[in-house]
Amino acid sequence: MHKQRFQRSILFILSCLLLMFCYPSATSANQTEKTSVLLVYDSLAKGTPKEGNVEAVQRLLASFGVQVTVTSYESYEKGMLLKFSKVITIRNADDVIQTLELFKQDMNEYVGEYMHIGNGLPANIRQDLNLEDQLLDQDNIRLAIGQFSQSSITASNITFITKFNGTSYGQITSERKKTTSPYGVLHGKYAYIPYMVNGNLSEQAAAFVLKDWLSVKTVSHSYVLLNEIYPFSDLEMLSEMAERLYEAGIPFIVSVQPVLNNLDFPAMQRYLEAIKHIQSRNGSIVVNAPVVNSTISQDITILKSQMSSFLDALAAYGIVPLGVGTELYWTYDQHYSGNGLSFFQSGIIFPNQRIMYRAQTSTSSAFTSAMYTIQSKEISNYVISSKTIDPLPMNTAFVYPFPINHQEMEETLDTLLTSWTTFDDYKNDEHSVRTEKNELTSHSGHLLINGQAIALNNAITEIDSDHTYVREVKKSFATLFSVQNNIFIVLILTTLLIFMVFLIIGYRMYKRKFTHQERSL
């Protein structure tokens, strides 16, 4: 009897130990590590319709939270391919037939997942896809995928897939041949997209293939983003717009420009009041990356302390920023990513407008939570359905530039109120911003500062405009100089008094002499 109890006790203890060891394993299995991808291209295709497609792929990958290493054929080093489990090749140069020999040798040994964009599909991938195609030197095409479509796209040297194994994505219709073929295909670990350029629907269509190739399982969402908000923007109109969106039940994101100096000025206080009011109207706040005017500017060398000061100023005012809005190239710069983006777990990726690297690197810094951006007018050109529009494969912000007058504001609001898109609340997701002083987070729609939920107050406080803009400098010898000034004043007044006395005496003596002479005559 005792032996059976002892055995049961041993079994119970072993079971508990087994659960203790298994639990961390299950937890780590649920923690997804960042995916790394090698992106190899033959040409940036500058001056051609394909210019910008390398950057477009980089931005799509960034929106999926992927860390990307970029290299050209010219910079490729032997063995680089074999260090990655996922590789994408972009072929833009139609006149280049021979693949770089080093890359070709590594490709023959490569056993990982591979995506090819453009012409020149490797023979072994073609064989695995059981792919047959037809190349046309010039054509007008119609591209359709999901609920989106674009017609009359001029394309040169475009490949039409006529036979394949696997899953197809979208459709390309040739106006010349009157035939339809898949936009892209995926079979096992191989994917192929014959045509992709920046600035038309093919960019967003590539995301449908990328998501499945990357094995991304998370559900994507659509968001409203109002950007280009500055301290000198029309803050009253901004508050009015926030009220109207709140009343309509439309959550939105506002991307505010940081103030790096003069944080105690009344203009800054009014700026903070407006941002706090937006937050109370169901608006989520993200901070834009600062504008870079020069890579040798003193402002750049103190970027980290300035960004930290602004974030702490927001926290002190009860404002919780949830992420950062940045151009893509900041994530490929060690200085900008280390000193400007490192505070943020979440990022909204904008296309590059003006690239000014300070410490460029070939490997990106990936956000835990990332978002793609597209201008609202652009995406509206592709919508073919009058039904509720499904989100794109990745989290996407539809960008609405802040209006410059009330007419533009009414047009923007009318567009949003009549939209078939379901917009989500950004703060419903997990976001975190950290400085040395504060931790700013969101959790299930709640905003927290250092773990404490904040109260949302929609009242706007009036800010007094009186302010000493030039601070008075402390004077070490102020008292001494004040005494000296008083002494000098007394001496000058005494001298003037004596001078007046002598002047009066002289006048009287002269007058007596003149009178005496007249009497003598």
Report, as a whole number of angstroms, the end-to-end distance.
162 Å
- Gross geometry: elongated
Low-confidence stretches: 10-32, 466-473
Major sheet summary line: 9 strands, mixed
Q: What is the number of beta strands?
A: 20
Relative helix content: 25-40%
The main sheet orders its strands as 2-1-3-4-9-8-7-5-6
- Assign the structural class, choosing from mainly alpha, mainly beta, alpha/beta, alpha+beta, or little secondary structure: alpha/beta
Percent range for β-strand residues: 25-35%
Number of helices: 13
- Overall average residue pLDDT: 86
Radius of gyration: 35 Å
Structure commentary:
This protein has a 9-stranded mixed sheet, with helices on both faces. Strands 10-11-12-13-14-15-16 form a 7-stranded parallel barrel, surrounded by 4 helices. A hairpin with a 2-residue loop joins β5 (132-145) and β6. With 521 residues, it is of the alpha/beta class. 33% of the residues are buried. Helices cover 35% and strands 26% of the residues. Residues 10-32 and 466-473 have low confidence and may be disordered. The protein starts with a helix and ends with a helix. It has 13 helices and 20 strands. It is elongated and about 135 Å long. The chain has helices at 2-30, 53-63, 101-109, 123-129, 201-213, 235-248, 266-280, 298-301, 303-316, 334-341, 376-380, 406-417, 478-520; strands spanning 36-41, 67-72, 86-91, 113-118, 132-145, 148-163, 167-174, 180-187, 190-193, 222-229, 252-256, 283-288, 321-327, 346-350, 369-375, 396-401, 431-434, 439-443, 446-449, 452-453.
